[in-house]
Amino acid sequence: MIKHSFKKLILLSIVLLLLGACNDNNKEKANTGENGGPIKISVFAQQGASTDLKTNSFTKFVEDEYNIQFEWQLTTQDSTVAAEARNISLASGDYPDLFLLIPWVDQFTQADLLRYAKQGVVLPLNDLIQEHAPNIQKLLDEHPYYGAMATAPDGNIYGLPQLNECYHCTYENKLWMNTAWLDKLGLDMPKTTEDLRDVLHAFKTNDPNGNGKADEVPLSGADERSHDRPLTFLMNGFIYDDAKTRLLLEGDKVDFAANKDEWREGLIYIKSLYDEGLIDPGAFTQNAEAYQKLGNNAEAQILGAGTSSHIGVFVSEEDYQKEYDPVPPLKGPHSSYASYIYPSQPGATFVLTNKASEEAQVAAIKMLDYMYTWEGQTRAHFGEEGKSWRKPNEDEVAIEEEVDAYLKTIPLGENEEERNDSWGAMAQYFQPREYRDSWAQATDIYTSEGYERRLQEATKLYEGNEPSSVFPYWAIWIEPEIADEVAMLQTNINDYINQNALQFITGTKDIDKEWDSYIKGYEQLNLNRYLEIMQEAYDQSDL
Questions:
Q1: Helix H segments across 175-221?
Q2: Same domain for 324 and 398?
Q3: How far is the CA of 239 from the CAs of 285, 460, 500, in angstroms?
Q4: What are phi and psi of 300, to 5 degrees?
């Protein structure tokens, strides 16, 4: 009896072992490539000088966690080189399974996605997201504007953009003023466009740096980036200028700013400042390097005010930095707007192609879904806990003080080599406002450790000063058949705006005599056709 029972027990054990082996084999098969090994995924990426993606510790973490073997196709973070490399890869037909890109370097535009989707090159992600990416699906459901950015007119998601709700980036056209000079001269922060004129005149004539020389530069900027140009900040006292599209929304009608009488008034005002020597001529032509050289002038502090998204753009010298504070939007004859810029760029940085196997598609979307959690985003973007970031102490405060502090970054130590433990900007897929607000920062905003808090507080002066309706350029999809036409129209129109603004301000063109011909010039640029296309795209956006 005992012997018989023992045989039955052995038989049962064998059956259970076989069943377990089958289950293990199924599990292994679901997480391996065709030959039983890791899932191979070829990736096109832009690599910076301080990162080696092949040996990067986050790369190794992802490969181990999702049983992936990456095969990297790398280019630089030079925008021109990176864009050319991506286009060559696609044109050659020898493109990878996956593109992982950085938006400020180069990414797929919405027109790119539609074009390559029609060619069958890029894959729709809808089913993959619904079946394997609950975190991404949740974001799409709860953030309609992100869904609008990601979803093509046919309802498909052909690639995913990064969500980076950088609060201070949302109002990037700021003016920073030397308040130490204001205090010395007994002046108040300007509230109107005419107050600004009076302050700049005092900076120019009353020797606020105290060196006995008339070397003060009342106001400067740079031409390299839109948020460094004085034109936009000053124009917003006359008519709304977003610095990107120059498009307006009047109800549901798409309109244009740079041909209006208010725009003309704004140019006349800015020209008057220029004629009085209150704006640095270099503000309209110099690059970022020259701008910072002006702000860091070694002999004496000479810059009274500068336009930029943050102080570090035009001055890096720490003692000088402490003396600048933000000027709230100025009240002009018609408005006191602040430019609203959606901080995430439309298009896509995560794109799967038809070269990717089903296993690769699933593994890639699962990997990305991990980055759509606070834990995954922190590991991917910042690096290893205890090395590049740590949990805050009880006395450390988040950028928004009512929010619980979640992480504190650890800067590189002196002579410490780059850690190569994160994907950095390539991984900024999930940074909603509440996540960024939870970063611990020093409470002294005039220290380097409190710099992000300083930008946060400055931006609160601008929030809510945009028009009630702003043209939603981030959710506008242009069909590939007219994408080249639209790109040409946009380039020509924006170049025309900027060139003529410079000529009117500096006096190369007489605004009284040549305004009508300037307006007529938009006919040759097909402005009406451009507005027609933008109107149709806006009507189709359901926003």
A1: 179-185, 193-205
A2: no
A3: 23, 21, 17
A4: -165, 155
